[in-house]
Specification:
This protein is mostly helical and about 60 residues long. Helices cover about 65% and strands about 5% of the residues. The chain is built from two helices and two strands, in the order ααββ. β1 and β2 form a beta hairpin. The longest helix is centred in the middle third of the chain and has 25 residues.
Length: about 60
């Protein structure tokens, strides 16, 4: 995964938040990490050609995953 660095940054920010008694920020960073993982995985699937049945050239969505 080429984007591992962003997860490291989010983890470092979360450690900072916890260490500095910023629980709401730490919780938000947990949520942000989940979103980042989801979006990174989706982007990698798109790059690999896994388009969930969508053919951009023809504009067709076969509905097949």
């Amino acid at each position: 995964m080429r984007n591992d660095w962003i997860m490291d940054v989010l983890a470092d920010l979360r450690v900072f938040a916890v260490s500095n008694d910023l629980p709401k920020l730490a919780e938000q960073l947990d949520d942000t990490a989940i979103i980042a993982l989801t979006e990174i995985a989706a982007a990698e699937k798109r790059k690999a050609g896994d388009t969930y049945g969508y053919t951009a050239e023809k504009g067709i969505n076969s509905g097949v995953a």
